[in-house]
Amino acid sequence: MRVDVLRGVQLMPSVRGEIARFRHRVFVQKLGWQVKTSPACSEPCEGEEFDEYDHDETVYVTLRGHDDVLIGCARLLPARGRYLLGDHFAHLVDDLRGEAGVGGEASVTPVTRVWELSRFACERPSCGADGGAFNAAEGARHLLRAAVLAARALGAERLIGVTFVSLARLFGRIGVSTRRLGVTDRIDGRWVAAYRIEIDGESLTALGLGAGAVRGCDEIWPMGAYSLAGVARSPFGVGENPKDRLRLALRREVRKVSSVTSGWL
């Protein structure tokens, strides 16, 4: 299994399309989402799903299984400026400014401490070596682990977002505490709510990450458990500076993630 973390500007058109088709299959075809295209983004092609929050600065976490097939993805955005929860689901949060760290010292810190997790999806492989028996909770844990690791490398201390109530309960069963931020709502026939996940010792331990996992970096670079080619030439790569230590630590942690070979949501 391979984990990749990429900014939108680093995505090849083929990979961008692959993620959009994966999301359409999961969210539109399987879950029945009625996705409306925003005037702020271009019209997606038939069979693709993306929105105005998919742009050059968006951070994508992807999982690939047998034959390099995409089997999981998640999206990370800083909870400042425009992001999905703040723009479209603020009514689900009792105190959005407080949860997003708006105001006070949080408004002037150079590193964003709160990030939004969205478009979290994992799918059973249709065939191949990865299509054997697996557990849904392990799949959620595997993808969430990769997303938390990437967010922590970006300096995040908290994740917020809107998700199904059932998925939040699943996170709880794998040991990652979620806190509901307000009321629930029924959208496309399923109950959803806004939640937060603290990236603290409890969550890191539940995900198999040490409390000292890489932190404090406001840059992201492409990586994979099997191939790290392109790090040096990436516009977001890290050169000869102290942050190289963070890059190497994150590389080691990503290799640990790759040891999980089954389990999808």
Characterization of this structure:
- The chain is α+β, with helices and mostly antiparallel strands and 265 residues long.
- Helices cover 28% and strands 21% of the residues.
- The chain is built from 7 helices and 7 strands.
- The protein has a 7-stranded mixed β-sheet, with helices on both faces.
- Strand 2 (59-64) and strand 3 form a beta hairpin.
- It is globular, with a radius of gyration of 17 Å.
- The chain starts with a strand and ends in an 8-residue tail after the last helix.
- Residues 103-109, 215-249 and 253-265 have low confidence and may be disordered.
Question: Span between N and C termini?
Answer: 15 Å
- Note the beta-strand portion: 15-25%
Helix and strand pattern: EHEEHHEHEHEEHH
Quaternary structure: single chain
Q: Summarize model confidence as the mean pLDDT.
A: 75
Helix tally equals 7
Indicate the overall shape. Answer: globular
